[in-house]
Specification:
single chain; mainly beta; seven-stranded mixed beta sheet; about 50% strand
């Protein structure tokens, strides 16, 4: 499985961005497709994720109501629409995938990782 993350950039507080995660490879390896982020000096943290079969989603409390997941099946792409961005959202955003484990989407034990895309929110 290969994951290609894109869409990061520099935006002012209150602005919006849309991140894309294009997945390729066996569908077995992308049953769960999730976004994590890592800010300088901090641990990687869960942002939002989706089970590709069924479409169940989960969001971190810090982004609920501001971030939204969507998908485009024809392109095997997961989108993370981010609204009302805050400086504390500044981080490198990674998409990750794994096969079916039955574990919480928040569990960081993912098999495949994309290269990351930088999101910087200025105050």
């Amino acid at each position: 499985v290969q994951l290609q993350a894109s869409g990061g950039g520099l935006v002012q507080a209150g602005g919006s961005l849309r991140l894309s995660c294009a997945a390729s490879g066996p569908i077995f390896g992308r049953y769960d497709l999730t976004w994590f982020r890592q800010a300088p000096g901090r641990m990687r943290e869960f942002v939002a994720g989706m089970r590709w079969i069924g479409g169940d989603t989960d969001y971190a409390d810090s982004v609920k109501g501001r971030f939204s997941l969507s998908r485009e099946d024809a392109k095997n792409t997961l989108y993370l629409q981010m609204y009302s961005l805050k400086p504390e959202d500044t981080a490198v955003y990674y998409c990750a995938s794994r096969g079916p484990t039955g574990e919480s989407l928040r569990n960081i034990g993912y098999t495949y990782w994309g290269q990351g895309t930088q999101v910087t929110v200025s105050s």
